[in-house]
Amino acid sequence: MHDSAPADMPDNATPPAKPSLVKARIRQLTTPWWRLVWLIGGLIWAVVFNVIYVNTGGDQEWWGVASVVPIALLLVDVLRIERLERATEQKRQADLKK
Questions:
Q1: For the segment 40-86, what is each residue's pLDDT rounded down to a tens digit?
Q2: pLDDT tens by residue, 31-48
Q3: For 42-45, which contacts have Cβ atoms below 8 Å and span 24 or more sequence positions?
Q4: Residue in 69, 66, 39 with CA at minimum distance from that of residue 53
Q5: Closest CA to 35 of 90, 75, 88, 94
Q6: Do residues 45 and 67 make contact, with C-beta atoms less than 8 angstroms apart?
């Protein structure tokens, strides 16, 4: 066994596969339950506000901007969680190198 190989992994074993990027994004958008509710509510919000915007002839431009607010906030939250997970992973990798 090589000095750099983990003690519990035989030389011919392959490391476990990482989940796909799509599965990871879906998990981030739907876990915990309130994010799934936020996503569905945000989509409904966007549709309703866009219908109002189109039916009023585009006179009130703020209807279009207001339609994307919930989705934008959800994406900001997902990016925040992703940044925290990345920082945790980098810290774990740094601790393993010590």
A1: 998 999 888 888 888 887 777 787 788 888 888 888 988 898 899 89
A2: 888 888 988 998 999 888
A3: 42/70, 42/71, 42/73, 42/74, 43/71, 45/69, 45/70
A4: 66
A5: 75
A6: yes
Cα 21 to chain centroid distance, Å, stands at 10
Helix (H, G, I), strand (E, B) or coil at 16: coil
Other CB atoms within a 10 A radius of the CB of residue 42 amount to 19
Report residue 43 as tokens.
């989509």
For tokens 């207001």, name the residue. 66
Q: pTM of the full predicted structure?
A: 0.61
Q: 34-42: which pairs have CB atoms within 8 A and are 24 or more residues apart? A: 35/74, 35/77, 35/78, 38/70, 38/73, 38/74, 39/71, 39/74, 41/70, 42/70, 42/71, 42/73, 42/74
What size, in residues, is the chain?
98
